[in-house]
Amino acid sequence: MNIVLRLAWRNLWRQPRRTWLTMGAMVFSNLLLIFMMSFQFGMYGLMIDNTLKFFTGHMQVQASGYKDDKKMRQTVPDIIPLANSIRAKLASDTVAARAQTFALASSDNRSFGIAIYGVEPTFEVNVSNIPGLVSSGRYLEAGNPAEIVIGDILARNLRVGLGDEITLLGTGVDGSFAAAVVDVVGIFSSGAKDIDRNIAEISLEHFQDVFFMEGAGHLISIVGTDLDLVEQLQADVTSMLPDSGEFVVHDWNVLQPGVRQAIQADMGSSFFMYFILVVLVSFSVLNTQLMSVLERTREFGIVMSLGLKPGRLGRLVVLETAIMGLLGTVLGILAGALLTTWVGHVGFTIPGMDEMAAQFNLPARMYPQITTLSLLAGPVTVFLFTLLASIYPAVRLRWLHPVEAMRSV
Known about the structure:
Number of domains: 2
Strand order of the largest sheet: 2-3-8-5-7-6
Largest sheet: 6 strands, mixed, barrel
Order of helices and strands: HHEHHEEHEEHEEHEHEHEHHHHHHHH
Distance between the termini: 32 Å
Shape: elongated
Number of strands: 10
């Protein structure tokens, strides 16, 4: 073993309690960084998936200008054949056509304004999680036109249950009066009050008949296999559309900008706290190495009087710090990986956080998602800051005078 490396290792364990305490701080910070970053990334993935799977999907095909105006007449003609064509070219069932408008829903007792969605029952289950949230009754079935599925809060407000009739009153795409009577076959509960209070779904074909759409719709929702592949999927779908500019393909960043902004804001505040943690650990290492240098002032003076350059002594101090930082990094990565893997398997929940989690479309039980980035980003940053902390004790040796150093006690 190199003599300098052996000397650095010996010096590191002159004060084993101090070394272990400093390494313990590094291990704990690395463990905390790995777990919290894995928890954040897992939470972000759930937030994005759950939000997009309510209605948005990873992308949508719309008429040009519909995203901003949301006008009834901004339609996609022959939307079901177009959706079938995209579905066939992508060889995927995660493509569903929709239409939407606002209407007055009336029961025998009450009336409320709601958003009506016309969906393809066969394919909606592949792009939306609402079909799986039906808590009473069943979801829509193809071939049964006069059916409706509503949220549990809306059902309570209208005072209706399964089998009751609801009258829908609205305006057709041509400006004419539109009306229909539908039977409640399902009631869903998403946990998001705005959705459960304001949303209802009927079959797309019935929607087209009631609102005089003449085979048109408003959007085609598409869900990809992975968020990282959305950009390529968007390019593929765009190439399938006519070049007339009549249709556009918007990805989820455009359709739901608030989701990305919320994630960026949370990451900014979290990384600030992580930075403070790393700085505190760095000062702990700085204190340890500075004390180590001060304790060996007499020794340094002796070897400098024998001709050893201050630069070599400085490199020795940096090497000691690097060894301690490497041990803390390896042990921290192992501890963080074990804890995160275990919690990622069993999950964990915070009492009293159920309602807040529902507001962000998150489940009550969380599962950290360990990745290469979450596993290495924190420990590598701690290691680099540890090396930076060793610079001052190392540079301080350049100001050391051998004679004065040998006189120190």
